[in-house]
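Lab notebook: predicted structure, single chain.

Context: the supervisor wants predicted structures on file for every construct in the current expression panel, including those that have not yet been purified. This is the next one on the list. No modifications to the sequence; it matches the entry in the shared construct table.
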Amino acid sequence: MATQFDPNNAQNLLEIEKQFAVKAVEQAQTYWNLLEKVEPKELKLTKYDNEIFEHTMSTFPELATPPHEKLVKLDEEWMKSPDGKKRWRDFIETYKDKVKEYNFGSLIRTDANDEYGEKNTIFVTRIQFYAIEIARNRLGLNEKAHQLAIEDAAKERAKKEKEAKKKGGRS
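Prediction complete. Output recorded below exactly as produced.
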């Protein structure tokens, strides 16, 4: 039998990394499309939304404090501080047997008032994404993103219609 695999000493396999990145981007695009089509307060991301929301608010009271600045603008330094890492790790592990792909990588917007972009995106686990976005939705913090997503979709439709007219006129 081959020697035991040690993930701490493994070489990064470029193809696997690309696959994870593609999946994370696809999930971000899907979520942005959902924000366009569904009122954020009505959006259900998992069958455990209520539990995740309550657990997030009780585990991270700093996120529950109005006006919810720490949810509107995520502080990556706080999340990755020794205390933040420990609290998040404990939180994440409680969903190990409940939420599919709970620890897969996901992209999240650092500012709830803006769209996905290079300067407004960090990498988190799937359950962190759910915890933060469920809270943002329930607390009305994704309303601006909802409006942006609607505007983006309208611009995209207008662009496609214009391109279709150009092609139709050249026949």
